[in-house]
Design a protein that fits this description.
Layout (H helix, E strand, L loop, with lengths): L6 E3 L15 E4 L2 E7 L13 H18 L7 E8 L5 H12 L5 E6 L10 E8 L2
Parallel strand pairs: 4-5
Antiparallel strand pairs: 1-2, 2-3, 3-6, 4-6
């Protein structure tokens, strides 16, 4: 008999708190769907400064959610990147490249008309798997 697939929210004490009625991540079988993460440090509640600092914090937040689900950045299959200003693409991309190293997930990057949170420059979501 094939076991039924199930989904579960990803929870851990050190994860960023959602600003709405959603989970930071959802685990479905071996897939993890991570909600869009902003550049707020969950320990301090403070938003990082420029787009580079926010991109790094976004990916640290994504990584914390992935770690709580038993995965990490090296198992990301796809990312969505939402920028307030596409002129900041190269600056975001430099940090993104450094954080992922040689791993190159599929990605879509768009300019958004607005993001939830005063001063938020970038938001990143992803789909990953548990190895």
């Amino acid at each position: 008999m094939i076991a039924p697939m199930s989904h579960q929210p990803v929870h851990a004490a050190n994860l960023p708190k959602p600003i709405g009625p959603y989970s930071p991540g959802m685990n479905f079988d071996r897939l993890i769907f991570v909600s869009g993460q902003g550049g707020t440090d969950p320990a301090t509640g403070k938003l990082a400064g420029d787009v580079e600092a926010q991109t790094e914090q976004c990916l640290k937040n994504v990584e914390a959610i992935l770690n709580a689900a038993g995965s990490d950045l090296q198992h990301v299959l796809r990312c969505g990147v939402f920028l307030i200003d596409m002129k900041e693409f190269q600056r975001m991309n430099g940090v993104y490249s450094r954080m992922f190293g040689e791993h190159r997930p599929a990605r879509t990057t768009i300019q958004a008309a607005g993001l939830p949170g005063d001063g938020l420059r970038v938001e990143i979501d992803c789909i990953a798997y548990v190895p």
